[in-house]
Amino acid sequence: MKMRVLYSSGNKKIVNYAVALGEAQDDQRSIADTIPPAYSCDRERLVVLVVSVGSKVEDKVRLFAKELTPARASNVAFVFESKDKKITPAMSELMNTVAEAGTHAISDNVLLVAGGSLFSSKLSDTERAEIVDWCEGIKNTLK
Question: Which domains are delineated in the chain?
Answer without folding.
Answer: 3-137 (3.40.50.360)
